[in-house]
């Protein structure tokens, strides 16, 4: 089974990834706080004082499909500060998911130009696992099933993998149960959900809730959420959006891909970006999404 799940620190044969460049950073530059930021009580921006810190800076990023060399991203620019919520919208096939996957180092894509700076480091020099340890999390548009592995074992393993990398002691099954059980409430899921096999037989909505549970368990400084609203009923959408909002602090950020205004009404974005043909062509506030909803993409200037 082809599985790419950097945010959960599974084994990935990224050494063959064309996107991989020489890794030069020290692991010690990843502080424990970095990966558990969403678990710690937030200090408000005003508590910290000063301007919000730069978290992610994408400059003129271009990428091709590794196998076919087909260009998909053609000069993406995006700047994300701590405490900001960015939404990326755009027509089907405009490159939104590709952009998200390139950020987490998906081996299907090869970066051909531009730069990505994350917390002051060159993200493109980092392995997918290292990106995850540095607090980059991605929920996938179509989360994969892992037959035969229970949800709780999977989460425990992923959580411990991160703790190991951070030099923290692992949590045993009982301790981990105590840690994860309260987080189920956040996504409004029953406890027996933990004993089910990862995403096996899950409904679309359950898969999405499960992704947010992973986010709540693992923590993130920058959570990339690819269409977490797709396939959700109104109650599930509210639950998932509430859970994501509850994880937001003034020191982390969310980059979410969505087609619909309804999600943005729950998780208020700082900026909305419109992607077209592999580029961000327009940036604005929630009014962009409102215009889109009313009039479609033809109404957005720049497209
Ligand atoms: N691994 C791949 N192999 C072949 N084509 C790909 C691959 N990844 C992306 N593409 C193509 O690149 C283009 C952009 O795809 P992408 O999934 O990034 O679009 P999107 O904006 O997220 O679309 P949607 O709104 O439909 O989810 C599409 O034409 C898609 O078919």
- The CATH architecture name reads 3-Layer(aba) Sandwich
Question: What's the CATH topology label?
Answer: Rossmann fold
**Overall average residue pLDDT:** 81
| Bound molecule types | adenosine-5'-triphosphate
Number of helical segments with 4 or more residues: 10
- How far apart, in Å, are the first and last alpha carbons? 38 Å
Domain ABC transporter: 56-302
GO molecular function: ATP binding; ATP hydrolysis activity
Pfam families: ABC_tran
InterPro entries: AAA+_ATPase, ABC_transporter-like_ATP-bd, ABC_transporter-like_CS, FeS-cluster_ATPase_SufC, P-loop_NTPase
Can you put this structure into words, describing what you see?
With 303 residues, the protein is an alpha/beta fold. The protein has a single domain, classed as Rossmann fold (3-Layer(aba) Sandwich). It contains ten helices and twelve strands. A six-stranded mixed sheet has the order 6-9-10-3-11-12, sandwiched between helices. A four-stranded antiparallel sheet has the order 2-1-4-5. Helix 7 runs parallel beside helix 8. It starts with 31 loop residues before the first helix and ends in an 8-residue tail after the last helix. Adenosine-5'-triphosphate binds next to helix 3.
């Amino acid at each position: 089974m082809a599985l790419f799940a950097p945010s959960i620190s599974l084994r990935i044969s990224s050494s063959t990834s064309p996107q991989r460049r020489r890794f030069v950073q020290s692991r010690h530059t990843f502080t424990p706080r970095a990966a558990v930021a969403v678990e710690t009580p937030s200090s408000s921006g005003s508590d910290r004082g000063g301007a919000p810190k730069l978290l992610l800076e994408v400059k003129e990023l271009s990428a091709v499909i590794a196998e076919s060399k087909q260009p998909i991203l053609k000069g993406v620019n995006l700047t994300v500060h701590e405490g900001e919520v960015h939404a990326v919208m755009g027509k089907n096939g405009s490159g939104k998911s590709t952009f998200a996957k390139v950020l987490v180092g998906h081996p299907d894509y090869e970066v051909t130009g531009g730069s990505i700076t994350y917390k002051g480091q060159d993200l493109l020099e980092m392995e997918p696992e290292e990106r995850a340890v540095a607090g980059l999390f991605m929920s996938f548009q179509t989360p994969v099933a892992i037959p035969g592995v229970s949800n709780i074992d999977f989460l425990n393993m992923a959580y411990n993998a991160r703790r190991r990398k951070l030099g923290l002691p692992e949590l045993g099954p009982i301790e981990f149960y105590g840690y994860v059980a309260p987080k189920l409430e956040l996504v409004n899921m029953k406890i027996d959900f933990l004993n089910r096999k990862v995403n096996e037989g899950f409904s679309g909505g359950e898969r999405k809730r499960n992704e947010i549970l992973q986010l709540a368990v693992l923590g993130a400084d920058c959570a990339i959420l690819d269409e977490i609203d797709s396939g959700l009923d109104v109650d599930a959408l509210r639950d998932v959006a509430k859970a994501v909002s509850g994880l937001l602090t003034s020191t982390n950020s969310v980059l979410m891909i969505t087609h619909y205004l309804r999600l943005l009404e729950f998780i208020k974005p700082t900026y909305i970006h419109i992607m077209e043909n592999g580029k961000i062509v327009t940036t604005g506030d929630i009014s962009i999404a409102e215009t889109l909803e009313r009039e479609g993409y033809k109404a957005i200037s720049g497209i």
